[in-house]
Amino acid sequence: MSTVTTVERLGRHVGQSVTLKGWLYNISSKGKLHFVQLRDGTGIVQCVVFKNDVPPELFESLGKLGQESSLEVTGDVKAEPRAPGGYELSVKAGKVYQSVEGYPITPKEHGPDFLLDRRHLWLRSKRPWATMRIRDAVITAVRRFYDERGFVCIDAPVFTPNACEGTSTLFEVGYFEQKAYLTQSGQLYAEAAAMALGKVYTFGPTFRAEKSKTRRHLTEFWMLEPEMAYATLDDVLELAEDMLCAIVQHVLATRKTELQVLERDLSKLEAIQKPFPRLTYDEAAKILAEHPESTFKYGDDFGAPDETILSTRYDRPVMVTRYPEAVKAFYMKRDPANPGKVLCVDVLAPEGIGEIIGGSQREDDLEVLLSRIREHQLPEEFFQWYLDLRRYGSVPHGGFGMGLERTVAWIAGLEHVREASPFPRMMYRITP
Ligand code: 4AD
Ligand code: MG
Predict the structure, then answer these.
(1) Are both 254 and 394 inside the same structural domain?
(2) Of all protein residues, whose CA lies closest to atom 6 belonging to ligand 1?
(3) Ligand 1 nearest-atom number relative to CA 225
(4) Which residue in 123, 139, 18 sits closest to 45, CA to CA?
(5) pLDDT value at position 409?
(6) Which atom of ligand 1 is found nearest the CA of 208?
(7) Are residues 81 and 19 in the same domain?
(8) What are the distances in angstroms from CA 368 to CA 18, 230, 373?
(9) Atom 29, ligand 1: which residue's CA is nearest?
């Protein structure tokens, strides 16, 4: 009997006989030898099949297998420094589960639409494989980071009666006799929970009816939102900085192979250390005003090209604070030291993916918050519960939202956020 194991764990079984269960990634044959590239979800290993070592029917059937045929193989594990991964299997037995012909995704180049239409299969290829494992490591790092710091994970609802981030990107859904919206952000609920539990975070799907087809926009994405009672903008900045460093460290420590599959320049990630550069909106505006390619107008929000100009100046994320209140959400606290500005931050990742984090200190004064809800013409009745948080034990508090797919796209060096989602949802794509 041989142990059933995985490609990832082969190093623990050198010199032993093991069984691997997986799929055929590639095969080449030379006389009495088959070289099978077997993938099992945890990695790919070369399996050498010598005709005289296995039953004749097995040798013959292996020679006819197409890409993605499912099979198990049993053999001896050898250290092989020249093999990718460092190990090789000399096969002694095996079993074919399904022999496949005509798998649509071949090792040649395919266009993005061809691949996205077949995302359910494309996930098996090397790049998506590496990306999903990096995404997983980012999630693990996030959960560990907050757990170690005593944050409690709470889950915000997906059906909501009101907007959080402006009314232009709401997805409306029928909710019995009423209208409801898919949540844009769990923040308002996180604020309520922070008053109950001190430090909390929500981590779940969020939705934006973004009519933009850029490489940064999805209609459904995952957002991580920490929220802290008794916190100021400075506390929010520090938390964001510590968290991003912890995420990058964890990915570097556990996903080097995957980063190499994606040909990621590791030195760019190793440079992600505290402190991150900080700019106010006014300072950023000045940089843009002096930049020959910028079309930025003072008072506006930064567009994607502006963010690219700003972020590529640094080798680590830049934290831009104190934007004009007119371009930001209703709940942000006004900066007492800067009339017309709010106590907010956008964190822009280096290398062009743009804003990965948006956060702020929250307006904690009942009257000011109420007047802002009115200015934004938001339905007051739905915000009564939120206003209660300012009626009963209001305190300075704040937090941020980090877009998971943008963060993964930055860390993995992806061109488009859609690659960071297992099944991306965009304006023109809701399948598979
Ligand atoms: O800046 P946003 O809109 O902030 C909020 O929603 C706050 N309520 C968060 C908070 O303070 N708790 O979104 C936060 C992040 C962005 O920085 C970006 O990374 C991501 O969510 N994001 C998107 N990612 C992909 N596609 C989209 N359409 C996104 N919109 C926002
Ligand atoms: Mg934002």
Answers:
(1) yes
(2) 185
(3) 12
(4) 18
(5) 98
(6) 28
(7) yes
(8) 68, 19, 9
(9) 217
User: Is 214 found in the same domain as 268?
Assistant: yes
> Does 335 lie in the same domain as 286?
yes
Which tens digits make up the pLDDT trace of 169-218? 999 999 999 999 999 999 999 999 999 999 999 999 999 998 888 899 99
**Same structural domain, 172 and 314:** yes
Q: Is 50 in contact with 92 (CB distance < 8 Å)?
A: no
pTM exceeding the 0.90 threshold for the entire prediction? yes
Q: Are strands 87-98 and 70-79 parallel, antiparallel or unpaired?
A: antiparallel
Beta strands in 80-194 (DSSP E): 87-98, 152-153, 159-160, 172-175, 178-182
Choice from 160, 170, 212, 221 to test ligand 1 binding pocket (greatest atom count within 8 A of CB) = 221
Tell me if 410 CB under 6 Å of ligand 1: no
Cβ–ligand 1 contact at 73 (below 6 Å): no
Let me know if residue 425 belongs to a domain: no
CA of 347 to the centre of ligand 1 (A): 11
Instruction: Tell me what pLDDT residue 213 has.
Output: 82
Alpha-carbon distance of 260 to 180, in angstroms, equals: 44
In a domain, 430, yes or no: no
**What's the gap in Å between 208 CA and the centre of ligand 1?**
9
Q: Which range marks the domain in which residue 36 is found?
A: 3-98
Q: Ligand 1, residue 359: give the atom nearest the CA.
A: 11
Q: Which amino acid is at 237?
A: L
- Residue 92's domain is classified under what CATH number? 2.40.50.140
Mean pLDDT of 33-39: 97
- In the prediction, which pLDDT does 162 show? 85
pLDDT above 90 as % of the chain:
94
With contact defined as beta carbons under 8 Å apart, do 329 and 343 qualify? no
Q: How far apart are the first and last CA of the chain?
A: 41
Name the pLDDT band for 281 (thresholds 50, 70, 90): very high
Q: Is the CB of 224 under 6 A from ligand 1?
A: no
- Mean per-residue pLDDT of the chain: 96
DSSP 308-375: HHHHTT-SS-EEEE--BGGGS-TTBPB-TTSTTBBSEEEEEEGGGTEEEEEEEEBP--HHHHHHHHHH
Q: How many domains does the chain have?
A: 2
Kindly state if the Cβ of 331 falls inside 6 Å of ligand 1.
Answer: no
Domain co-membership, 93 together with 208:
no
Is the domain of 56 the same as that of 146?
Answer: no
Neighbours of ion ligand 2 (CB under 5 A): 358
Task: Please check whether residues 214 and 158 belong to one and the same domain.
Answer: yes
Determine the average pLDDT of the residues in 378-395.
96
| Residue 114 falls inside a structural domain | no
| Whether residue 185 has its Cβ less than 6 Å from ligand 1 | yes
